[in-house]
Amino acid sequence: MIPLLPQQIAPVDAQQSALTDAYLAERIAALQSYFLGLRVKVDALLAPQLPAAAGKPYPYGRCEEITREIYALLATRLRQPEMPIEQVLLDFMSQGGIVRSVWGVLREQYFQNALQFGGLYVDVANDTVDVNKPAVEILPLAASGLVAVRDLAHFRRTAESYWGATIYPNHLLPSLAPLLPMVSVSPGRLRSGLQSACDYMIALMCRDNFQQAEAWLRDGPVLPDKETAALLADTPADLRPWTAKGRDEAILACQRARNADCAVDERWRQARVLDYLRSLRGPAVAS
After folding, report:
1. 122 beta partners
2. Is 162:103 a contact under the CB 8 Å cutoff?
3. Which of 119, 145, 172, 185 is the 20 to 30 A CA-CA neighbour of 252?
4. pLDDT score for 239
5. How crowded is residue 166: how many other Cβ atoms within 10 Å of its Cβ?
6. Based on the number of CB atoms within 10 Å of its own CB, is 207 exposed (0-12), middle (13-18) or buried (19 or more)?
7. Sheet of 182-186, strand order
8. Bridge-partner residues for 100, per DSSP?
9. Is 219 exposed, middle or buried (0-12, 13-18, 19+ CB in 10 A)?
């Protein structure tokens, strides 16, 4: 079997179906109430901290942050379960039930973070696109409409429809292009920048040894000069192209990474992620 990527939806096999039926299927109302309670706690923590997203107040656009905090809070609570439903979840896990954070495309409309409990889809941030929806939604995973991002084309289509974005190749920061081969531009929606720095997409680029990243860097439409200048002005000098041919440097970075087996080199990957985080902090003089 091919190992699951980070946050990839796990297959619901016979064992997961049986465990879901035995422990969770008849406790949906209790699970709903429990996660609504966790959501109240997380909202109280995050709402004062997070600014408006795309001009809209919390919880709009905060699916990732909410899901991450609830997943962490759940892990803490299950170390010393106090509520009956917590003991049920712990028993479910002790028998091999899957509990994991997942990410993908929901109903071919937008990117979504959620939690998987065996055969259940638990969306603890269901109101972050449409704030009139219930905060928590629990469905059979098969009926949820959540699917893994298949490839760069699938990511681009979703970003274009969800963010109103135009996606270009990353010829701006060539050393990061093997892992972050796209630049998104969506005026009035999201800050323009590299895509996608989530663990799943980075691992997806590594899985085929940067082949699809290289193809997009070679064939995708060139970022307009105005956007190029604006984005390069905000990035560290040592990460910018060394020549006027950022496209060639980005393609070469993929080829060199492939030849050096960087796809399986955790230290190389971590260094690129740190470079990406450094790029978000603004320009610096090259040493």
Report:
1. 115, 138
2. no
3. 185
4. 95
5. 18
6. middle
7. 166-169, 182-186, 190-195
8. 116
9. exposed
